[in-house]
């Protein structure tokens, strides 16, 4: 990695680049690193980790659609214990900022996750996954109402050590997004991630989410709206970004950092290349 | 600078390559790709993931995964790799339409290869349609190890039958079945697997093809007391382990049912580890 000065900071967390790898799109980190996909990026957000392991949905979980993917993984993850034992050590040793995406089925579980991850070396930040499509159907704490999202954030804030950044990820709900962002910021979120899939239907009729280029104009709109209403709040934009031009568009709309996700499935090097482009290396 | 070959050799690469040639053989297109560094890292059973489309931004985001059929050294381009494409669907049609010199983004080699026996044992290789592609480099490796190789090749009809001539050069005996009886006996892998596996006396059975066929082969191998190595193909959105989208139901350690990524933990699985009935009934 080049020794350039950090370009951005979120809650005191200095990032080498405003480009982050979005939750659920970078495997465990190792797979991306093997293809030089993590080189020079500002940070890696893990797939969402829950306290207990989750097997996830059976069968096919990701379908191609016009300009995107519809997907429903069912939050497949090894659970906190296995994550700490088998995935975090590699991330901690890797030359990349690590933000752990978490979701929980109760406020107590959120507090548990905050305590145990906050104490773990190598965790630079937590991202609360508050907008998983069909979260309640997956048994998650219902954060669809802004005050409920704020309660989850407050539960984590109380138990998270200072120095670990707290990001709250809220959905691209055009009608509620400003209200939700304000509520989670007041509850103690250092930054708000405007992202996650739009609720959608899989071809086989199961509920899922839409990600990819199709989402980008919607994502830009929510970033612009929240930035206009809450100009002092650090925002992380996510939705359909694939390259440096898209990242610049999010920054221009008011984001401090930008996550690249679905595009990595198509080109595992695109986040690293966007980060290099923004540093003027190409 | 010296590189540690054991560590570096199997790391996948993401490169912008080029189509060196495209040849129609039967119902398939055989594409020879120049993808610097990739062919040297190939082991039979690994695959490559291809990005579909030329223009950016691309409309089709999912990768298309292909078995590596052949690796060949060339004078001017280094080692090339050959994939077999059926010109159906968005990705296959696009790939099959590529011309010599067209650029192509490829990632690979990906996945776990076939496990090779340490002893010179008897091996049966079973392949259906274009999925038989990785069995030919496998047969060569097995022969280098002194293994006796026999093959069963199957397809719906002659046009979809891959490599019967090559097979006769590499294998001691070749059985061919087609759905319409145009070549060899009439039948499918699922129908003839018990008999062919039993007759082969194989210690290890390697198979690629339909889930139904693989299920039958794995069951026949188990009944025979033979090991089976099955190359399980499912649609892989990324092929690189990033998305957790391509799941295979397996029997995990301690006998617990689990779903694992086909692209990272596979595509080759021990036949007795796959929960075949679940694989065939889960939504695909």
UniProtKB/TrEMBL annotation, chain A:
Residues 8-273 form the Dihydroorotate dehydrogenase catalytic domain. This is Dihydroorotate dehydrogenase. GO terms for cellular component: cytoplasm. Keywords: Flavoprotein, FMN, Oxidoreductase, Pyrimidine biosynthesis. InterPro entries: Aldolase_TIM, DHO_dehydrogenase, Dihydroorotate_DH_1_2, Dihydroorotate_DH_cat. GO terms for molecular function: dihydroorotate dehydrogenase activity. Pathway: Pyrimidine metabolism; UMP biosynthesis via de novo pathway. GO terms for biological process: 'de novo' pyrimidine nucleobase biosynthetic process; 'de novo' UMP biosynthetic process. The keyword Ribosomal protein does not apply. Its cofactor is FMN.
Automatic annotation (TrEMBL), chain B:
Pfam families: DHODB_Fe-S_bind (PF10418). Its cofactor is [2Fe-2S] cluster. Binds 1 [2Fe-2S] cluster per subunit. GO terms for biological process: pyrimidine nucleotide biosynthetic process. It comes from the Bacteria. GO terms for molecular function: 2 iron, 2 sulfur cluster binding; flavin adenine dinucleotide binding; metal ion binding; oxidoreductase activity. Residues 12-116 form the FAD-binding FR-type domain. InterPro entries: Cyt_c3_hydrogenase_gsu (IPR012165), Dihydroorotate_DH_ele_sf (IPR037117), Dihydroorotate_DH_Fe-S-bd (IPR019480), FAD-bd_FR_type (IPR017927), FNR_nucleotide-bd (IPR039261), PyrK_electron_transfer (IPR050353), Riboflavin_synthase-like_b-brl (IPR017938). Keywords: 2Fe-2S, Electron transport, FAD, Flavoprotein, Iron, Iron-sulfur, Metal-binding, Transport. [2Fe-2S] cluster binds at residues 238, 243, 246, 263. Belongs to the PyrK family. This is Dihydroorotate dehydrogenase electron transfer subunit. The lineage of its organism: Bacteria, Bacillati, Actinomycetota, Actinomycetes, Propionibacteriales.
């Amino acid at each position: 990695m080049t020794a350039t000065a950090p370009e951005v900071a979120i809650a005191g967390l200095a990032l080498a680049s405003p480009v982050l790898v979005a939750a659920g799109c970078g495997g465990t980190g190792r797979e991306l690193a093997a293809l030089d996909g993590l080189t020079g990026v500002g940070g890696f957000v893990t797939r969402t980790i829950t306290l207990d392991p989750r097997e996830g949905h059976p069968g096919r979980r990701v379908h191609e659609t016009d300009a995107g993917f519809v997907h429903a993984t069912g939050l497949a993850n090894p659970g906190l214990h296995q994550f700490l034992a088998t995935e975090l050590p590699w991330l901690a040793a890797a030359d990349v900022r690590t933000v752990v995406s978490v979701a929980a089925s109760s406020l107590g579980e959120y507090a548990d996750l905050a305590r145990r991850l906050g104490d773990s070396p190598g965790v630079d930040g937590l991202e609360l996954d508050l907008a998983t499509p069909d979260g309640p159907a997956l048994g998650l704490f219902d954060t669809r109402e802004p005050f409920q999202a704020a309660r989850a954030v407050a539960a984590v804030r109380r138990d998270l050590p200072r120095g670990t950044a707290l990001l709250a990820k809220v959905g691209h709900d055009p009608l509620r997004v400003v209200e939700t962002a304000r509520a989670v910021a007041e509850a103690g979120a250092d930054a708000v991630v405007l992202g996650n899939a739009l609720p959608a239907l899989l071809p086989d009729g199961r509920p899922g989410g839409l990600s990819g280029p199709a989402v980008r104009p919607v994502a830009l709109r929510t970033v612009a709206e929240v930035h206009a209403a809450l100009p002092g709040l650090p925002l992380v934009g996510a939705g359909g970004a694939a390259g440096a031009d898209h990242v610049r568009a999010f920054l221009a709309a008011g984001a401090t950092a930008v996550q690249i996700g679905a595009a990595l499935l198509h080109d595992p090097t695109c986040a690293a290349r966007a980060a290099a482009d923004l540093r003027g290396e190409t | 600078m010296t590189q540690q070959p054991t560590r570096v050799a199997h790391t996948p690469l993401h490169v912008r390559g080029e189509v060196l040639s495209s040849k129609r053989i039967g119902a398939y297109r055989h594409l020879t790709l120049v993808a610097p560094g990739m062919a040297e890292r190939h082991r039979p059973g690994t695959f490559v993931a291809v990005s579909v489309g030329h223009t950016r931004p691309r409309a089709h985001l999912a990768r298309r995964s292909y078995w590596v059929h052949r690796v060949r050294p060339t004078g001017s381009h280094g080692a090339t790799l050959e994939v077999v494409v059926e010109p159906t669907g968005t990705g296959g049609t696009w790939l099959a339409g590529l011309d010599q010199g067209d650029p192509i983004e490829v990632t690979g080699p990906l996945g776990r290869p076939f496990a090779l026996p340490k002893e010179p044992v008897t091996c049966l290789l079973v392949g259906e349609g274009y999925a038989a592609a990785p069995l030919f480099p496998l047969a060569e490796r097995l022969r280098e190890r002194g293994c006796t190789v026999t093959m069963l090749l199957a397809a719906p009809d002659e046009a979809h039958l891959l490599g019967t001539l090559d097979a006769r050069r590499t294998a001691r005996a070749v059985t061919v079945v087609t759905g319409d009886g145009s070549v060899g006996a009439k039948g499918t892998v699922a129908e003839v697997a018990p008999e062919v596996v039993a007759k082969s006396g194989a210690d290890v059975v390697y198979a690629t093809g339909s889930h139904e066929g693989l299920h039958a082969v794995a069951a026949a191998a188990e009944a025979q007391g033979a090991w089976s190595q099955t190359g399980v193909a499912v649609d892989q959105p990324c092929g690189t382990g990033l998305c957790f989208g391509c799941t295979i139901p397996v029997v995990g350690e301690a006998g617990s049912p689990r779903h694992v990524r086909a692209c990272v933990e596979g595509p080759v699985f021990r036949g007795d580890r796959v929960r075949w009935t679940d694989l065939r009934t889960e939504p695909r």
